[in-house]
């Protein structure tokens, strides 16, 4: 990494020093070109750009070229020493470390000579020369570029190009349109086994899984003739009304959004989402019949509990304001500002009210889940497209362990958010609508992910996925090429898929096809080792036996007798080996008070270098848990080999796979080198450690050291020794 001294920040002092310019220009190469995806084109470029290292007060940076394409802003350097291949963090196949997808850019700030700083708004043109360009991204990362040695005409072009392409005014100007022209269909309704709810079969399977017999899939919205913001197929009570009556009833709801089924509990009560009704009219009887049908669909025949989310949840404006205050706390790249802010960190965090919003949403979800154990619950808001998505998802996670697995969680988001019409494009400000004055970013999906993360902290073995998975999912929302989070509703998605000009049907990948972005090595960080221990039959049995062996030594009862007795008791009770309720019908009852909420540091602070814990933090615990699981599986494999009493038989035994990070070395020897050369911080695997000297490396912890005192070898083929 090239280091630029104080002359970078003092242009007047050395403005006429040709030697400095000559030295600076020697750092650059003009033959650099970005890696382009299908349909991606370079728009403009700027030479001799400085990319500053965060928290170095703009005194250290890398020299290179800055490119703008119709997909991303990318920085490339000819200084090959700046590419730290050994310490690579999570490696995305679609973008490199120096790439910023344009849909990930939240705001742009221009700093001119004299230090004046202003925010660049959409649909504006910059005529003044830019000294520094600050890019604030939706993943809470800040990029700062300097243009001291860049030709003046290139500075203006690159600045205006960023504004124009980062804030498109029409959806068809998004790069995804060009990208889709070069892709082929990926499947027939499912991607990586995740249902897309684009056909009746997906809905039917979910109804059958819930044991739901009084609701059925209807296609009253075929061709989006009733509501353009709802899917063509959704679930309504059986034997409800005629088609004409449904049409009349739909006209009484905001956006013609009929009440729709979300979930049926094991007791037969259902969770229903409903939009706000218009003022009373002569058609009120049809609405009454609809509510009666919902009541009759409950086997308990009790009157439904209605929960008005506009009164119970924080307003969208409050969430917006809280998010803006949170950004002010996070978006800093100066060591001095960090030190000043650190003095009043807790009071500033409390002032954002972000954790209060998280607490409120969790409390409402817990109340709804409690009501659902006795009555059908109707959650309602003006359009049933915002908090209905969030609360219905949380309720199902609390009540049903299926949604705590990766497949279940993804299917839940696909059904309750994507299919039911959460406006990702509008609320994510992917397209700037000049006709609307309010274009503020509404981070409701981030609020949902934060709520889920809080649950994973209170129930660390209750979820199959890790916090790294949740953070990566948040990053994928802003990639801008996945159809999952690109549109406002199914109707908009269906129109986007047809290119009338070329008579061509377009296809975009789904976020749930993780192989598009990551290798198996990187996806292994998505899995939770504590959940593997809790649900893997081999590991679970081994832990049970170990527990009862210890108990038998204390009570002097034969181990097998005690184990059999306790196992019988476990089968007839609701307890697991860890003392919690069994996974079957296990309802989470989290603490929802504000005092129990934590800041999701891996998501919000991963790019703040002074906040990183070197060699520690949650990743350190996570990796140690992975080692523990692998050791148990390794020992179980050796025990089975000893039972066979034959080395030949042992070699033929298939070892149980955990799909955790250290198990990936089974098939990919390349992982060994990665583990040996990757250094750990609390921001792992996102924020890579800067290039280290030999002395500095002693402070850090290579991941391979977690295996130093374990029984796991890199060469797993030697398990019979």
UniProtKB/TrEMBL annotation:
One annotated GO biological process: phosphatidylinositol dephosphorylation
InterPro entries (UniProt xref): MTMR12-like_C (IPR022587), Myotubularin (IPR030564), Myotubularin-like_Pase_dom (IPR010569), PH-like_dom_sf (IPR011993), Prot-tyrosine_phosphatase-like (IPR029021)
Ranges for domain Myotubularin phosphatase: 197-604
GO cellular component, one term: cytoplasm
Pfam family, one: 3-PAP
Domain of life: Eukaryota
PANTHER family in alphabetical order: FI17948P1 (PTHR10807:SF110), MYOTUBULARIN-RELATED (PTHR10807)
Protein family per UniProt: Belongs to the protein-tyrosine phosphatase family. Non-receptor class myotubularin subfamily.
Protein name stated in the entry: Myotubularin phosphatase domain-containing protein
Organism in which the protein naturally occurs: Magallana gigas (Pacific oyster)
